[in-house]
Amino acid sequence: MSLDTATVRRIASLARIRLEEPEVPRMQAELNGILGWIEQLQAVDTEGVEPMAGGGAVSLRMREDAVTDGGIPEQVLANAPDREGEYFGVPKVVE
Amino acid sequence: MHPTDFTLRGAIEALNEGLLTSVELTQAHLDAITALNPRLNAYVTVTAEQALAQAKASDARRAAGVAGPLEGVPLAIKDLFCTAGVRTTAGSRILDNFIPPYESTVSGNLLRDGAVFLGKVNLDEFAMGSSNTTSAFGPVENPWSRANDPDTRLVPGGSSGGSAAAVAARLALGATATDTGGSIRQPAAFCGIAGIKPTYGRCSRFGIVAFASSLDQAGPVARTVEDCAILLRSMAGFDPKDSTSADVPVPDFAAACARGVKGLRIGVPKEYRLEGTPPEIEALWEQGLAWLREQGAETVEISLPHTKYALPTYYIVAPAEASSNLARYDGVRFGRREKGADLKDLYERTRAAGFGAEVRRRIMIGTYVLSAGYYDAYYLKAQKIRALIKRDFDQAFANVDAIVTPATPSAAFGMDEKQDDPVTMYLNDVFTVTANLAGLPGLSVPSGLDAQGLPLGLQVIGRAFDEETVFAVGNAIEQAADFTALPRLRAGA
């Protein structure tokens, strides 16, 4: 499977990474190089194999649905690029 | 003896015997950093004042008779572990101003046990790389160089290149590191030191900047196998803040080092005999197996049939998880922000300016393989092959106690080599990535030198949560190898 330039632009948009037009051909070539190499996996027979989702054999444990942390707005906001009061600041979203 | 030449265990004994203080030991390392770091670029941030204050407090604790297991030992912390009040960059421009308000569990465990932190060490950006050349803070230089070509600067491996270079050059007695596809074991091998990626779930991932959550594991690098064992005991342990942290007891790993290998069955996977592997690495592998046989182990050929699919599987699973994990770097809550016309423009400009080329590439691959219409063909397929890779190991471990392989397919390479094609760089992890996919412990042991005088490592892979056998086998190889060669660039040289 080979990606065309329109697909490369669409993936960049989905990934929220600005891709300048002159960068598209190089990114396209690199992605196609990697995807071409990955293509060999299609040859593996995986009929009836359960996908392995996590990294360990230990099953996830349940915990009480209880608040264990919080009340630290200054710490939460300490690294904010922009803030207004106890809120993160962003450009206007709704007109 | 120069204080930076102690092993970690030797330093603890010297501190216990009052031969020197933690302040003296810490100052010697800070002096070594001042002398050598401008060249090696191993440290991104040096916390000299904090280190000396910690050392002073440690000396006071020791005097009061309340010394912890790592009391007064100066360590380097990979700049992927959040350290409260100390900048944590992940090697990325997008986090170059990030000061965590909290401490990672692993680094917190080390502080609990009395360690002193010298500073934060360099890495490939977001731990993505095998050469430490993708860091936004510049490449790290390997303290080793080729005997016949000392002017060519070599990579330390990656992603934990700063950790490995710092320890090899004696700018720390040990360091934390992380391993998603080989990022502890490959740099350890390239720098002539030991490093273990423990079983998935052994160390808490809380407070470690996430790359690929189902593969990431923290572990130590140090100059001996036993030093790694001492560090891992402190780093490991159950943590309710990480849902994948394993609630299992942490054994005395250092005690296991001396167990010996008599009666152990050592698996030798035939699929790891790759075409194009340098004969020196093949020969070292044979030598390592012979050493183990001499000490009473039996070596057995085994088959791990899906080995050749491990790297391509990894390059679906890891970028997919990375694209999800790195979605948080959007310029809103922390890190760098670029101005944008609207919110989407702000996100896109922030991420384009903040991420380097390799990180952007992996996010793109990950976004593609998870996108509508391709998820089954790529991501689901990769998860199924991952299950087959794990099954290969399960079947092998029914008959053997540990597996021994080369750690890397080459010795350290030049800083300008292998940079043109991403896939060529990815092949560095061909021997290490399987243990991440299967969640198993893997230890790299310095075992010999190539013809150019560069270190080579052997890898020991064990059953899940059986790091003790891994340490026993690694220690046996280390004793037989008697690896005493030293890098050209090092403190006290």
Automatic annotation (TrEMBL), chain A:
Its EC number is 6.3.5.-. Keywords: ATP-binding, Ligase, Nucleotide-binding, Protein biosynthesis. It catalyses: L-aspartyl-tRNA(Asn) + L-glutamine + ATP + H2O = L-asparaginyl-tRNA(Asn) + L-glutamate + ADP + phosphate + 2 H(+); L-glutamyl-tRNA(Gln) + L-glutamine + ATP + H2O = L-glutaminyl-tRNA(Gln) + L-glutamate + ADP + phosphate + H(+). Pfam families: GatC. InterPro entries: Asp/Glu-ADT_sf_sub_c, GatC. GO terms for biological process: glutaminyl-tRNAGln biosynthesis via transamidation; regulation of translational fidelity; translation. Heterotrimer of A, B and C subunits. This is Aspartyl/glutamyl-tRNA(Asn/Gln) amidotransferase subunit C. The lineage of its organism: Bacteria, Pseudomonadati, Pseudomonadota, Alphaproteobacteria, Acetobacterales.
From TrEMBL, chain B:
GO terms for molecular function: ATP binding; glutaminyl-tRNA synthase (glutamine-hydrolyzing) activity. GO terms for biological process: translation. Residues 24-470 form the Amidase domain. InterPro entries: Amidase (IPR000120), Amidase_CS (IPR020556), Amidase_dom (IPR023631), AS_sf (IPR036928), GatA (IPR004412). The keyword Ion transport does not apply. It catalyses: L-glutamyl-tRNA(Gln) + L-glutamine + ATP + H2O = L-glutaminyl-tRNA(Gln) + L-glutamate + ADP + phosphate + H(+). Keywords: ATP-binding, Ligase, Nucleotide-binding, Protein biosynthesis. Signal peptide: none annotated. The active site is at K78, S159, S183. Its EC number is 6.3.5.7. Pfam families: Amidase. GO terms for cellular component: glutamyl-tRNA(Gln) amidotransferase complex. Heterotrimer of A, B and C subunits. NCBIfam families: gatA. Belongs to the amidase family. GatA subfamily. Allows the formation of correctly charged Gln-tRNA(Gln) through the transamidation of misacylated Glu-tRNA(Gln) in organisms which lack glutaminyl-tRNA synthetase. The reaction takes place in the presence of glutamine and ATP through an activated gamma-phospho-Glu-tRNA(Gln). This is Glutamyl-tRNA(Gln) amidotransferase subunit A.
